[in-house]
Amino acid sequence: MSQTNLFFMTLTTGLMVGGIYALVALGWVIIYKCSGVLNLAMGELTIIGAYVTLTFYQMGVPFVLAVVISLIIGLVLGILTERVFLDRLIGEPILTVIMVTVGLSFFFRGLVEFIWGTNTRVFQPPVFPLKPVKIGFLVIGSVYLWSFVTAIVLLLILVAFFQYTRWGLAMQATADDEMAAISLGVSARFVYAAAWAIAFMAAGVGGSLLGNINGLNISVSYLGLLVLPAVVLGGLNSIPGAIVGGLAIGILQNFAGAYLDQYFPGGVKQIFPFVFMVVFLLFKPYGLWGWERIERV
Amino acid sequence: MENKPEPILKLNNIEVKYHEVILVLKGVSIEVPKGGIVALLGANGAGKSTTLKAISGLLKHEDGEVTDGSIEFLGEQIHKKRAVEIAKMGIVQVIEGRRVFEHLTVEQNLLVGGHMRKGGDKTVKERLEMVYHYFPRLKQKRKEIAGFVSGGEQQMTVVGRALMTNPKLMLLDEPSMGLAPLLIHEIFEIITRLHEKEGISILLVEQNVKLALNVAPYAYVLENGRIVLDDTSERLKENEDIKDFYLGLTDVGGRKSFRDVKHYKRRKRWLT
Ligand SMILES: Nc1ncnc2c1ncn2[C@@H]1O[C@H](COP(=O)(O)OP(=O)(O)OP(=O)(O)O)[C@@H](O)[C@H]1O
Ligand SMILES: [Mg+2]
What is the ipTM, given to two decimal places? Predict the structure, then answer.
């Protein structure tokens, strides 16, 4: 393969995986924006959704329907998680809340290992055709292409939800000024629950797609944690930031794998996004699009 | 005593504490007649905003609580209710400081005001038209991001947003703060019209005492968590203390202490 070819292949694959990260990152940002919770259990949300999808798929349910079922379960789990674990923490110090999400991640991880074990599982029969798709001189695995398309469609739906629907606007309003939103009759508790539900759903779809690429085991939760560098890059509370951040991390990660692996064999692809995050934070602590408050002129 | 019309809102000797220990209101009684405008005056830190938050229930979200006395709205006790329930009953508070949803457009701000859908989807459209009718400027600016429109337009946005909730009682916290006189005039004219045409009762907190006494026929003066004076605006305008302290009209030397004390804080507010 020629050098330019490798470059573009790496770029496209990275971009496509990045689409999935963007979806998960958006879920993360919604929770942070609406309720101020820094959620360190995002990786586990990702695998739970993935395992649910896989389970139903193995039972013979068509993939799309399995994803829909996983969405519904994610919705319920999201609301439950918020109600049971986080609702009583409103107003507690931020560190307490973060520690609770760490606790949650262990809890979910235990739950997943208990139910599904630790062996790697794959979607059998493969959901997406094994034959790659050729676009010009680019050859892309169809699983990547379809994952990307799915992720982008869901991202668009989510963005439209926030811009045009009553609950989407209420969630954005709560993110901007919770007190003012409450004064207009917006239930903050409902908004928090909705945020967790959306995060669970987005992560679940993301996990299902990632599971199709690499197979599914507990380490997919690491991929879910990649949202952290993504949201740090985009700015913790920016929706467009999460999307761009997710895409960028996908690309960076793939380039690290393609070009640095020969120098640092082993896990460079895994750790590079986090190294990048640390260095990036030194220079731009608010991310590319993080809010500082709007100063009116 | 002139016989007052039946009150829409009644505060009976309420006491308010923050964080269970900080006593801020020490027995406040206020009545707002149905369809009336009442002003609540007082210096910085007197407890005016706290009084409004006690009524709207927002107090609970700042770890505050009504620890004694009661608040009645249309004959029903509301001081134990959650803010969202109180909003549903028809009380809306316009929080001080022009708190627009700054990343939403002006129109999206208004739509959030219609969130409760009192009377169904159709009425949201109708109410939006009504808000634009009262605030034609907002119609021009509807597509703009609320964080970037002028201070006066932001104030109109938050009042319009409150109007979207279809309120029976509006609690206005210092709507004139930091605005140019001409704009204040414009906004208060609209508020007066809203009150007359839509029959909305209003409890108005103001530091601009002259303005407040012109708009509201009756006023209370709050000092240090207690009501120290209440009377018709006519009589309050003649009251020596009010003239001296709040209107700055005495011959001793023009503007007096209260204004001077506040000067620093006001300046600061304009700058932020
Ligand atoms: N969340 C809070 N926690 C503790 N104390 C508070 C809180 N909010 C207000 N206070 C205190 O209660 C007192 C009254 O505050 P409040 O905001 O009601 O005054 P105000 O009359 O509205 O003043 P201003 O004119 O400055 O708006 C002040 O001493 C203030 O420090
Ligand atoms: Mg105040």
Answer: 0.87
